[in-house]
Amino acid sequence: MAVTARSLGIDKLDLNERLALVEEIWATICADARRFPLSQSQRIELDRRVADDDEFPDDVVSWDEVRASIRVRLGR
Questions:
Q1: What's the domain count of the chain?
Q2: What pLDDT shows up at residue 55?
């Protein structure tokens, strides 16, 4: 049987709990990142993004701002 949000009961969590769970899952994926080597094009793109961030460090949006914007768009 496939693992689904419903089979795990995730669909019963409220929005904040689901977002927190996504963050937690993403953290575990990042911890295993060494097991998935990047392609040359992916490495180039990441290097480009790091250089852009270094050049424009204040050109960012916080996670709280992103989350609030999403909630406004979803009407929640």
A1: 2
A2: 96
